[in-house]
Write a structure and sequence with these properties.
single chain, alpha/beta, Rossmann fold, 8-stranded mixed beta sheet, two-stranded antiparallel ribbon
Length: about 375
């Protein structure tokens, strides 16, 4: 079995293979696989700005535990082909339900009728949650990482009393929310053309959201208001007049800190940098636009009141603000959205990139959940 990966110059991963498959939904999906293809399947879905490669540290352990492990580059990412890269293109193709369709098509190509467990990190958690909600017959167990799922939108959504974005802009320290920035036409160019260079930009971004940045001390927020949101670090609630490269540049780690980073070597970071320099970020940014634009919510309101009923787990880092960036979502996931919620694990020594920062413990917990 070859350990060569489709990402050029990626360090070899023994036992992990690159494959391509037509998913029947317009994509030639690139995916990484490990383990015996006849074994029970664990499907791993990455977030932003990540790749299937983000699962490199857990795939061998899951395969060694007796599972077949598949991690695709999702629509808009990496070596997967066939997606619309434009700001003015087919935005609806990035909607959550079509992303679930992408995954179902991959499973059909693999000859699989069910998945032992679907695991999603960050934005991948959204896809995994919707997959388990709409097709519990296929996705038999669910583990979410870093991004809680609070359930489908209600049929009647109350209008906010105040415009939180206007309020953020008028704070004593004027601010803006990163998700709305990511929806702008300028965001992709800002990041792809980062003045510090792609690798330095991504290094700062990953560092800023990790446990290595000591100021990451998350706690629940009481409400969706400018005063509460302003408590979030600047990678979530940015200074009003800064781009994301400018935002994270303030927290660029030193050469000594980079050398000491055990969970992301410069060679590994170079894999991300090469892919995003080549493709840009617009594919991933279009996911945010589908979450923000109201016209895409109506398709989800069909599922109002529906719960996730398969066994569900949550894993994140103790230093991950993603757990609390949406006030009340972490609690709603456990008490309302999931009827068979088993456990929430907040791991010390990890921030947002939990499966990379604490790979051994994440692997142990995933094996435990998939075997339950």
């Amino acid at each position: 079995m070859s350990s060569a990966l489709a990402y050029p110059n990626a360090p070899a991963l023994p036992g992990v293979r690159s494959r391509f498959a037509d998913n029947g939904n317009g994509l030639t999906m690139h995916y990484l696989e490990a383990g015996d293809p006849k074994a029970p399947l664990i499907l791993l879905l990455h977030g932003f700005p990540e790749l299937a490669y983000s699962w490199r540290k857990v795939m061998p352990a899951l395969a060694d535990a007796g599972f077949y492990v598949v991690a695709p580059d999702q629509r808009g990412y990496g070596r997967t082909l066939g997606w619309d890269p434009g700001y003015d293109g087919d935005l609806a193709s990035y909607h959550a339900l079509n992303l679930v369709r992408d995954v179902l098509g991959l499973l059909e190509t693999l000859g699989r009728r069910e998945v032992q467990m679907v695991v999603g990190h960050d934005f991948g958690a959204m896809v995994a949650a919707w997959a388990a909600l709409v097709r519990p017959d296929v996705f038999r167990r669910l583990t979410l990482m870093s991004a809680p799922f609070s359930g489908p939108p209600a049929l009647s959504l109350p209008k906010p009393a105040r415009d939180v974005h206007a309020d953020l802009a008028t704070l004593e320290r004027p601010r803006k929310h990163y998700q709305w920035y990511y929806c702008t036409r300028l965001a992709n160019g800002d990041m792809q053309g980062a003045p510090q260079g792609m690798q330095a930009f991504l290094r700062a971004y990953f560092h800023h959201k990790s446990a290595d940045w000591q100021a990451n001390q998350p706690h629940p927020l009481t409400e969706w208001s400018a005063a509460e949101l302003a408590k979030l670090p600047t990678y979530y609630v940015m200074d009003l007049n800064e781009t994301m490269p400018e935002t994270v540049a303030h927290e660029m780690p030193s050469a000594a800190e980079i050398a000491a980073c055990s969970w992301m070597s410069e060679d590994e970071m170079a894999v991300y940098a090469a892919e995003y320099q080549r493709l840009g970020f617009q594919g991933g940014l279009n996911w945010y636009r589908c979450r923000i634009e109201p016209r895409f919510r109506s398709a989800e309101q069909v599922f109002a009141g529906r719960t996730i009923d398969v066994p569900t787990w949550f894993i994140s880092g103790q230093s991950d603000w993603g757990v609390h960036q949406s006030p009340g979502a972490f609690e709603a996931m456990q008490t309302k959205a999931c009827t068979d919620f088993r456990a929430a694990h907040l791991l010390p020594g990890a921030g947002h990139w939990v499966q990379q920062e604490q790979a051994a413990e994440v692997s142990r917990l995933l094996v435990e959940a998939a075997s339950a």
